[in-house]
Amino acid sequence: MSSHAYTPGLKRKAATIVRKTRRLPIQGEVLIKKGDDVKADTIVARTFIPGDVQVVSVAGRLGIDLWETSKYMLKKEGEEVEKDEPIALVKSFFGLLKRYAFAPVSGTIERVSDITGQVLVRELPVPLEVDAYIEGRVIETLPKEGAIVETPAAFIQGIFGVGGERKGELMMIADGSSDVLTAGEIESKCKGKILVGGARVTNDALQKAIKVGTRGIVVGGIDDQDLTSVLGYKIGVAITGQEDLPLTLIITEGFGEIAMSEKTFSLLKEFDGRLVSINGATQIRAGVMRPEIVIPRPELTTKERGGLIERKEFLEQGLLPGTPIRIIRKPYFGALGVVSKLPIFLKKIETESDVRVLEAQLDDGRHVIVPRANVEIIEE
Amino acid sequence: MASGEAPTTVESPFEDVTLGVRNAIREVEELTGHKMLAPQGIIMPSKGEKEGVDLYVTTSSAGGGLQMMVAGVVKTMTAESAERAALGAGAIVMDVMAVDDGRRPYEKIGRIRYLRPDMILMAGGTDGGTVTHVVETAELIDAAKPKPRLGTEFELPIVFAGNKDARIPVREILDKAYALKIVDNIRPVLEFENTDPARNVIHELFMEHVMSHAPGYDKLMKWTPIPIMPTPAGEGRMFQTIAQTYDANVIGVGLGGATTNVYSMYEDKFVRTVSANLGMSYSICNVLKEAETNNIQRWLPFDIGEEDLRNRLYNKMIRPTTIPQTVEDLVVEHAVAREALRLGFEHHKLLARPLRGIQRRRTIADIFEQEAFEETYIDMLHVDWLAGTGGLLSHAPRRAQSALMLIDSFQPEGVTKLAQDSVFMMPHLGVLSTVHPRAAMEIFENDCLVRIGDCIAPRGKGEDGEFMKVEVHMPDNSVLEEEVSFGSIKRIPLGESEKAEVEIFPFRKGDVGQGSGKRRTVDVEGGVVGVILDARGRPLVLPDNDNERKQKLIEWFKALDAYPEGLYETCEG
User: Are residues A96 and A200 located together in one domain of the fold?
Assistant: First the structure.
């Protein structure tokens, strides 16, 4: 007798349908139409966001009372100004002495305040564009916002990443899933590539990769201190993707030196040399977001694509006997196996907590009992 | 009593909170056989024995809770008062802006644009005081053109609770593009802080402008006649009710996965603080960052490498729902919890302090004691209750573990009642207490409150060889005498609802409320752990020597029978 359970999991699929909604943060113009084939760097939509505001203390500069500010303005609210153009003037000694206040930037006079004596100058609008991110076909446009792009692809989720969206050619740099990626292996040919390592990447290797212009690294694990070195600060919560980093890093297993799952490694190896899109953005909270590697597979036939949509997903089914899992907490951290039993009743574990458990048959032959909270489903 | 829980459905693909609520209620229905759900929502009022409910109350922390920015003129005066008001209303304060905070105007504008708060509270100026600086702040806010986090097409709510003379210009600047509400000044004079009007209007706006734009809340709001409160506001309300019911000074703490909330109701002053960056799962690495590895390691009675410890915590951060399977892992989590609680309380004390900016007549002695004058008004000797809630405390396999975590981090002094939440129910009882205070207190007493026991702990230090002595007049009329050496801890098995009179003879420099070395007679109450005699001294200091420290920890754990025997065998082996 078994019981059903909802469990988080990571996707690792050789073929699936990937859909990406590409949306502007504020409304703008959509540049493509439904049915268009797009490359990863095709611009899908564009808009302009309001520029920054600079504050000029006009009353202070001119030495006038605050309430007199608007009286001495040369430019009125809404007028455009050039950088260093005079915006206010006060004359004294029969016009012989002149004191100016200048525009610190080009833009528009937004506000003249007779209470604070300050003038706000808004800089010119800044253009903002959204690209397709993945190579594929536009299946829907979102008026004034963007579009949805779809492609058949191999799709792998990592557990944690830093750095945003990047595209490049996938390059296997490790021979095996338990190799450690060091600086010695990073050469100029790694420029513009998305490298696949094994169990860990060192700080030196990361620094060298940045130096040669590598766009991304996918690896099993990383020591937290190496991550701190490359970021320049310690990460406190796993909400990432906005880092000011020249490359994107995705770890597939966890922190420490942990061999990349053999299946993930071989899947990536199968697509060595292909153009891929990756995103390190991770959000671990309600509505979890994991980093991802998308490998578009336009070669799949229409029939094969249709089959992908039909397939029932493991993650939707939850844990069942036979579900492939990874144990994600000590004492079996990192072990892979399949669920063998899902007992209904709570079980007292070593800590003396009564919890829901499962029995698992591990790939290394061990049969273990673990809390259900301590496994994740690997969806293939 | 039955409880049910289910993951949130606020985000895509569901984008409707009521689905999650239905899932949780369905669990309760299955457990009790009591029908509560109908297609249109919760069945209310009840229709006989097995169908419907009398009242449904709810709190919400969806989407990370209510996130606010506050602004004032002087950082330590009006801005600090605004911060206290927003925190008291249950918000997470993302930033505190003040004219004298050292940032340039463009930096502040950039910050407002970047943070995208749900609401802004603007204070500043006493009534009749500065108008210029208040208007300057309003101009900066308007220049940033902030948009709400949920529902960008709606107007951002802004509360103005500053100088009444600045109302007209503030209205001119902000009324057009924002949902502006003007309330009484939070600091009408420097000597008085008036946070209630701001706090109340924050709750109103939370319902009208924030909640109503979150996915599914329009439906949820129709399910209950009682306004939905931010979860921490409900929790705070309950701690206030406890303080009022027992006429006691209360410190409460909610140790969550992402945040640590600390509440104090001390001599009728209510303060809540939230350490939005200290939690036991999502933000466990922030605890590591703030406390540093050595402060976590000091609570471990066994060796664990720094790298191993760090990687364990980072792995918990990225897989936050996992639970300790081994006792060793459990003790590591409890070590982190002690530091999260300690840091959370330190943050709290920074806001639970006397109002700044008041002119006081000072004597020479006061001038020498300048530092003390700046410190918190909370005196641990006069705290009557210390209560904890949150997953880690509620799920600790033995209650003695939560007792030790609370004692080690808050370091209660004198005689303090220790308690904890049995399941995560306090926020909802807080909402219930707004309409049925007696019902809320009855449920609290019978089903929610777990009395751990009273803790007797002298303030100050003893010498080696000194001890604290107690004479306990037990309920069966026997007299129990106990001596606890300085540096040690013991417990007296006095069960729940059992009471006893205790005469306490602290060590020479130990103070249990009557002065150093003075005897005190007091009535104590037992609990699931018993009466705890903590003669380790205050402040609590762990031995510098690594072996001695580990020995001490094992001694303390054993004294309270806190962990399974296997742990000590591993440590000693």
Answer: no
Q: What pLDDT is attached to residue B9?
A: 76
Count of structural domains within chain A: 3
Q: What is the per-residue pLDDT across B366-406, written as a single tens digit (0 to 9) for each?
A: 545 444 445 899 999 999 999 999 889 988 999 999 999 99
Backbone angles phi, psi at A256, to 5 degrees: 110, -170
> Residues A163, A231: one domain?
yes
Q: Are A174 and A262 in contact (CB under 8 A)?
A: no
Concatenating the DSSP letter of every residue in B206-237 gives: IIIIIGGGSTTHHHHHHH-SSPPEEHHHHHHH
Cα–Cα dist B506/B471, whole Å: 12
A234 in contact with B, Cβ within 8 Å = yes
Residues A219 and A280 in one domain: yes
- Give a yes or no: residue A2 inside a domain: no
Mean pLDDT, rounded, for A344-358:
91
Nearest to A8 by CA among A373, A348, A380, A259: A373
Chain A hits for B285, Cβ within 8 Å: 234-238
Asked if the model's pLDDT at residue A51 lies above 60, the reply is yes
> B62-216 in CATH: which number?
3.40.50.280
Q: For A26-43, what is the mean pLDDT?
A: 94
Shared domain check, A168 and A91:
no
Same domain, A115 and A177: no
A window 113-172, beta carbon within 8 A of B? 113, 115-118, 120, 122, 159-160
Same domain, A165 and A92: no
A228 assigned to some structural domain: yes
Confidence band, pLDDT 50/70/90 cuts, at residue A2: very low
CB B543 within 8 A of CB B550: no
Q: How many CA atoms lie within 13 A of A226 on its CB side?
A: 19
> Which CATH number is A343's domain given?
2.30.30.30
**Does some domain include residue A150?**
no
The percent of residues in chain A predicted with pLDDT above 70, rounded, is 94
Do residues A218 and A196 touch, judged by C-beta distance below 8 A? yes
How many CB pairs lie under 8 A apart between chains A and B?
A: 155
Residues 6+ apart with CB under 8 A from B566: A350, B327
Q: What is the pLDDT of residue B548?
A: 95
Same domain? For A163 and A208 the reply is yes
Considering the domain architecture, whether residues A89 and A167 belong to the same structural domain is answered as no
pLDDT attached to residue B552: 96
Residue B345 to residues B232, B273, B275, B341: CA-CA distances in angstroms? Answer: 16, 9, 9, 6
Q: Where exactly does CATH 3.40.50.280 map onto chain B?
A: 62-216
Residue A140 lies in a domain: no
Q: Is A236 on the interface with B (CB under 8 A)?
A: yes
Domain around A344 = 316-379
Q: What is the predicted pLDDT for the residue at A287?
A: 59
Per residue in B13-55, pLDDT tens? 677 889 889 988 988 898 899 999 998 889 999 998 899 999 9
- pLDDT attached to residue B371: 46
A120 and B143 within 8 Å at the Cβ level: the answer is: yes
Whole-number Å distance between alpha carbons of B350 and B376: 7
